[in-house]
Specification:
Layout: E1 8-11, H1 20-35, H2 41-50, H3 52-60, H4 69-83, H5 91-98, H6 110-118, E2 122-125, H7 131-141, H8 151-154, H9 161-170, E3 178-182, H10 185-193, E4 197-201, E5 223-225, H11 228-234
Parallel strand pairs: 1-2, 1-3, 3-4, 4-5
Helix pairs in contact: 1-2, 4-5, 6-11
């Protein structure tokens, strides 16, 4: 089907729209300075993200009942606080650190590109984030979504099919009328299998200077670019 049939753009958020790593590192460093706590905050942020997929895997498999990403992030954070021998934090301070993920900054091209795309398409999140996290992130970064659909809406984490199919259904669209915009080849592959059109944005520094995955497109996605404005250009917005 032609790209002319696309009515809605669905976006992976972490890494595609926002720079999670730099944002979390900055939050941790500022917190450490305020509290007088010294740690390798860059490694702490990377370790926190490394726990992201394993924590969701247990839910995907059904080994654990449904838990929001905020809950999973907090469990991982508590584990890391112990591992790094950080003591004396209050529950409020732990909650503040956990909500670093609510305050992630957009990549420099994201808001401009999304604003252009919004003139022609419905813009919706297709993220593993929970709704409150994504709402707060949008307000913090000025992200102009039409619909915020978090993982809890489908009670499933990507790449389970119901994430993609549910998002299309909630907008009263067929998957073929939707396009996933993502910086992750695996996410796009899962969406395409279900009928989505696909746009890949290269974010070669998402995981830092030594990133060894998703640096380039690994398939013939409908759009391949290096910015949100590139997606807007390709779709003539």
């Amino acid at each position: 089907m032609s790209l002319e049939d696309v009515k809605a753009l669905h976006f992976d958020v972490f890494g595609t729209v926002v720079d999670w790593r730099s944002s979390v590192i900055a939050e941790l460093e500022a917190f450490g300075e305020r509290k007088g706590v010294t740690a390798d905050w860059i490694q702490f942020a990377d370790d926190w993200r490394d726990m992201y997929q394993p924590s969701m895997d247990a839910v995907r498999r059904g080994d654990r009942e449904w838990r929001s990403l905020d809950t999973l992030h907090r469990e991982s954070l508590i584990t890391l606080i112990s591992r790094y021998n950080i003591t004396g934090l209050t529950e409020e301070e732990i909650d503040h650190l956990n909500k670093s993920w609510h305050r992630l900054a957009p990549w420099p091209d994201s808001v401009e590109g999304l604003t252009r795309l919004k003139k022609k398409y419905i813009l919706a999140t297709l993220s593993n984030g929970n709704v409150a996290l994504l709402v707060n992130m949008a307000r913090n970064g000025g992200l102009p979504w039409d619909a915020i659909l978090g993982a809890e809406v489908n009670h499933a984490y990507k790449p389970l099919p119901q994430c993609y199919l549910g998002n299309a259904r909630f907008l009263d669209l067929q998957p073929s009328q939707c396009m996933l915009v993502a910086a992750h080849n695996g996410d796009l592959a899962a969406a395409r299998t279900l009928g989505y059109r696909t746009a890949f944005i290269s974010r070669p520094s998402e995981y830092g200077p030594n990133q060894d995955k998703d640096r380039k497109a690994e398939s013939d996605w409908d759009i391949v670019t290096d910015s949100m404005n590139g997606v807007a250009d390709a779709l003539e917005c």
